[in-house]
Amino acid sequence: MSLVAYAPASTANVSVGFDVLGGALAPIDGSLLGDRVLIEKGTDDYSLTCSGRFAHKLPADGKSNIVYQCYLGYKAALSEKGMTCLPVAMELEKNLPVGSGLGSSASSIVAALEALNALHDYPLGEMEMLALMGKLEGEISGSVHYDNVAPCYLGGMQLMLEQGALISQAIPSFKEWYWVVAYPGITVSTSAARAILPAQYRRSDVLAYGRHLAGFVHASYTNQPDLAAGMLKDVIAEPYRQQLIPGFKEVRKYATQSGALATGISGSGPTVFVVMKELDQAQRLKSWLEEHFIQNEDGFCHICHLDEEGARVVGTQL
User: What keywords sit in the KW lines (predicted)?
Assistant: First the structure.
């Protein structure tokens, strides 16, 4: 038996919700923007191979790969339930660049765990899985946060709650919005992007953050897209992180002139996102970004809607 699990790219923070808001991404052309993991019963306890566009960016030592940590974590979780993990052979198809701001590590983690859980007939529930995903993500970034793994796993726009066993819930999203995401081809590490942030914030910034986040969630539930777009302002990270992204100010200026509802940094960057209302505007912006923002052959740009499905089994072979 073999199966392939897919986990979509995600945009964390979404400007207004630092560490507490994230959305999964689905290109409107039907392509899959995210990592895939093939799993089958193996002859040894565990084996891993890697393929895909960005496989060369992964550690040469397979036991340094996050997928191995997923296997160990899942095996331990099954053991706590009195169950035994099957011997598995896994292949990670690495389609997202590392350090891109598109939830690359989250995509690998979620795809691997979704594959493992599916192979074992889903013994772990959603919140058990999400807790394990957050723990593994924290081992990479240095702190547990769910704003990539939650939308990647559950789909849609997710609000992190972390109330008891409830980690995250979906909030309504605007189906008419186009999310133009552009990765320039350079790397910004999450740890470096966090290190550049101040240790303390002014009271006015904290109040603005709370107002914008509350306003966005309220507008999402009351179907007020213009109000929601107006709330997409980042006073926590963008003022400091924009210096790590060459051309960000030019992107914001051009996007605004082109009718953008909002522009922001996806996760820790360097990917930027622009919310557009009209498809023709989004297509013109995509062409401009490909010419003026993307720096090398590793870069790319996609027009997306939110991926409402999240992680899923997509077939039996890569």
Answer: Amino-acid biosynthesis, ATP-binding, Cytoplasm, Kinase, Nucleotide-binding, Threonine biosynthesis, Transferase
